[in-house]
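Recap from last week: sequence in, structure out.
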Amino acid sequence: MNVAGGEACPDPGEAVDLPEFIERLRCLRIWAGSPSYRALAKKVGPLLRPPQTLSQSTIGDVFQSRRRRLDPDLVVGIVRALGLEERTVDRWRAACVRVHAEAKSGGAVGVFRQLPADLATFTGRDRDLRELVGAIDSARGAARTVVISALEGMAGVGKTQLVVHAAHELVRAGRYRDMQLFVNLRGFDPDQPPADPSAVLESFLRALEVPAQQIPTDLEARAAMFRDRLHDKDALIVLDNAASEEQVRRLIPAGPGCLVLITSRRHLAGLEDAFLHQLDVLTATEAVELLGRIAGVERVQAEPAAAAAIAESCGFLPLAVALAGGRLRSRPAWSLAHLAEHLQAGQPPGSDRRLSAIFDLSYRGLAPEARRIFHTVGLSPGADISVPAAAAMAGITAHEAQQGLELLVDEHLAQQEHFGRYQLHDLLRAYAAERAELESPKECAEALHRAAAWYTVAADAAAQAIMPTRYCEPLRPEETAGFNVTFDSSAEAMAWCDAERANLAATVLATAQSPSPYLAWRLPVAMSTYLHLTCSWPQWEQLHQLGLSAATASADLAGEAWTLSNLGIAQTELGRFDEAADHLTRALQLRRDLGDTSGEAATLGNLARLYAYADQLESGLYYARQALDLARRTGDRRRECAALNSVACCLGELGRTDEALEYFQAKLQMHRQDGDLRGLGLALHNIGSACNQTGRHADAFTTFQEALDVARGFGERHSEAGALYGMALALDGLNDLDEARPYLEQALAIFEDLNAPETQEARSQLARLRSRVTKGAHPGEG
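Predicted structure tokens:
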């Protein structure tokens, strides 16, 4: 169903679930002419009861497919503001209520939708679209494996727009409904290396709700897991801006129900069984039609010869034509002939030079404040940028940044593929950075420093919100440009880290190559809490290696100690124990030289973990006891609790369970005294597990009961499931199978809902318990 260009209004009754309803609402906005979120906010507010003043972010958020629920009154207001008659408005209200009811009752299941928005200005390409869809249909009918289509063409020719449009058309036709995955592989980014296939696979697997602990570190293992997760799925994967066949090879699933669409500036002849399509520039007619879509059909029809001249001057490239149209739309007093004269005056042949002329024309028309924002987006380390990050980089307010970014979108100089995040085409990005360097080299250096400072402050605040008890050296005020960032909850902080992860990594890389060595190591350290929770050990190691190089080059001993210690943690998790031991030993000596006793205790604890992982438990116990002695001497209760846990774990693994319980109990008592409920819950879980292992099942049940209360008080469902599971094992040990079963079933339901790594173990345990009940085991029979 094509909704753009005067086609049929989308039907909400066809939506099978909430994400599909949101997709149709987004199509309705395109059908209505793509009014801006600002314009919609002004129209919708007075339509509500009572009338309200709405922000553009409130409206924009409604169109995001990640939403779990929508406000029906707000949806109705939006539909009315888009110009539908009341009878049709009623249909949208009914469909909204229906998809919410189905979601609540476990009806239609939502899908993974990562496709960028389909541009309302998309035009032409009818022949290309027919050939692409025809090739997909033909291959799908005959193939026993995945269907692959690759679009190739020069920069600015519109490959991404065509692929995204085709993808949306296929989904709107009811195909590839299970999931749609999208990634920009950055094959030709002027400032960043091409995306690592291993990192892309990790992001795909996380999007498919694979727990972080279950994602392998090995590239081939990740590729195998990805293929397994997409087996028998009706899935569409878009791999945009591919650098080579090798970059995409492991990102291609194997199932015949999958479609992979690839774009590249290079010829990808090495992809077996792929349909290769060369995309050329627009035809003259298509280019003029696109100009009219943006600048106004009436203006183009009034000056057809000038419109044709503009299209020719743009080399019929969609990117250039869109920029020219944006110039005309923002300059209603200009005639098309005036613009055509500007473009034709002394313009040399060649698409690159033509693009430069168009870029120059658009750039010169910007006010100084808008130019600064344009520079900022071009200089940003990441592939896209949020409003707060842009404001920080440019040294302006968030409101000013928002206005400037929206102006760039209106001028077709920037894109907003996802709400609240802005980016430039690769060619425009390089142009913006070049203009910034030519006009103000000092501004470039300052903008990069502000970016690194803001991302470091924000990442540190996120880590604090996620884990308030974490230990970290306070940020140095003279390095952080006075920025202040806060998060209201750990969930908000985790969501921010998810959204900014690629940009954070890119900032580390950019900062490591600039005169900001402190931020180059401090940012990876700030990210470590998030990376630990997501088990991102390869990325953790890579970023801390960059940080270590920067700290070493600047003789920052504290930075060396932090990065060495963190490298040891990652290498322990990766099973590279010799490297981990080397890094941790060096970190320990540095922290002793610096008199950093808290850091020394932490490093001793990391050494204890290393040797426990390496099955050298006596060595692990030795370092754990050292950490405990140091923490007690210095009165560091937080480190003392951590050390008590390390000692107890080593003793437990050595089979000295009674001694282990004494240390767990000491830790438990400290958490009670300090009111640390999170630590209390962990200590209770450890004690309960130790009791179960030693046959003290009644004590284990009582302990896990308290752990359950603590977990529910915090709303931590994984801990709740762990406590329920421990209670079930305790009752099983007491041979009270009828009582054990409901606890085990509750635990399994939560584990399955969270897709937790304990799921299979709990499922097997429940099967064994049911089998024993069936065979006639009863309480008291032993």
